[in-house]
Amino acid sequence: MNIGIVGTGVMGLSTALACHQRGHKVTLYDQHPPLHTQGSSHGNSRIVRLDYPDPFYLEIMLQGYPLWKNINLLLQKPIFTESGIVTFGDPKTPDLQTLEQGLISNKIPYDRLDHTQTIFPALRLTENEIAIHNPVAGWANADLFRQSSTDFLLTHGHQRIQTHLPDPTLFKKDHDALILTLGAWSKQHLNLPVTINCQTFAYLRVPNPAEHTKVWIESSEHGIYGFPPESSSTDLIKFGVHSPGPEVDPANPIRPVSEEKIDLLRQFAQSKFNITNPELINPQSCLYTNTATTDFLWGEYSPGIFWASPCSGHGFKFGPWIGERLTDFAESKLHPSAYPRFCASQ
Ligand SMILES: Cc1cc2nc3c(=O)[nH]c(=O)nc-3n(C[C@H](O)[C@H](O)[C@H](O)COP(=O)(O)OP(=O)(O)OC[C@H]3O[C@@H](n4cnc5c(N)ncnc54)[C@H](O)[C@@H]3O)c2cc1C
User: Fold this and answer.
1) What is the DSSP track for 59-109?
2) Which of 99, 219, 261, 329 is the S-S candidate for 200 at Cβ 3.0 to 4.6 Å?
């Protein structure tokens, strides 16, 4: 088949790789160049984890997690690094409780630690906190993924056209199927009930980078999360805040950095990493496309045109799995309605 894909974030590129592996010819369209920073897929790291507080997503990640290892093999690059993940907080937090329950009911081995035990030396737990450590998790290098998958697709005879499509659906006539992965721009083009928020993250200089061995998430109202250093030659770790930042219009290229979130990050570095004067470097923003339930959305726009807007700040790890499903839709092997939870809010 000749398949058009509009949008070259993680969803569009993952779909293109799945199409390539099934023998289809792909044309990618995007309004911006391959490594742009206007959407949701830029930066050097994204959490990829098998465990999830919600059993529905855990079920999907049982299929989706191994696909990241296939991406490394296909692109011959270290895009996914399996470092393990530590989720910590008050054990009464509902998310932490359902996360642990999911691990138990799926017989996934994990460690449960208290403040006297060490698995992630840089992190200081308080007496009333616990940490769940799952070694089957890690992080994906988002920019390396975007660059290497684009290079791979172009060297294998597919096309990328940089153009802004005022009505992306008009391109159906040139293709057997059209897939729209427009990220935050889905709100306008597909009239979705979503909110676009600007999410702040920054890099923190840490005194002992070798102690930052794990991806981590604080199970709390703000959901602060972070990563090990990207390589052994840097003393910077990336960390960010998951709770919604200011609402923005994706058409406006200004991406505000929230001072309030930067303060939260600074306080976190002091209390959890014991850094007296935290040095925050290169604060920046990225877009979340939030639904009220934080569920992803997808659907069939018209015959042969399918779309997906999986974000709400947790979509990246599902990219390869969603790419496979969007390719199933294009091939008429599956219909979006097979997953009613993703069609619920349309
Ligand atoms: C700071 C931050 C941290 C995150 N952390 C994690 C994490 O740790 N783990 C995780 O799983 N997820 C995480 N996420 C969420 C994840 O990154 C997103 O779900 C994912 O990147 C969304 O990808 P996308 O392809 O749907 O959108 P995008 O990457 O925004 O891609 C959409 C593309 O469509 C193009 N486009 C739109 N309209 C048009 C048009 N009319 N014509 C041409 N081109 C068009 C845009 O230019 C853009 O390139 C995070 C997100 C942010 C912002």
Assistant:
1) HHHHHHHHHHHHHHHHHTS--EE---EEEEE-TT-HHHHHHHHHHHHTT--
2) 261
Residues with Cβ within 6 A of ligand 1? 6-12, 29-32, 39-41, 46-47, 164-165, 168, 181-185, 189, 199, 201, 240, 286-288, 310-311, 313-317
Tokens of residue 135, six digits: 């070694």
The full set of domains in the chain, from first to last, is 2-53+141-192+293-343 (3.50.50.60), 85-135+195-290 (3.30.9.10)
Average of per-residue pLDDT values in the chain? 95
Q: Is the pLDDT of residue 338 over 60?
A: yes
Q: Kindly report the CA angle at 236 between 314 and 47, in degrees rounded to 5?
A: 15
Residue of 87, 162, 301, 311 best suited for mutating to test ligand 1, as the one with most atoms within 8 Å of CB:
311
H or E element at residue 200: strand 195-205
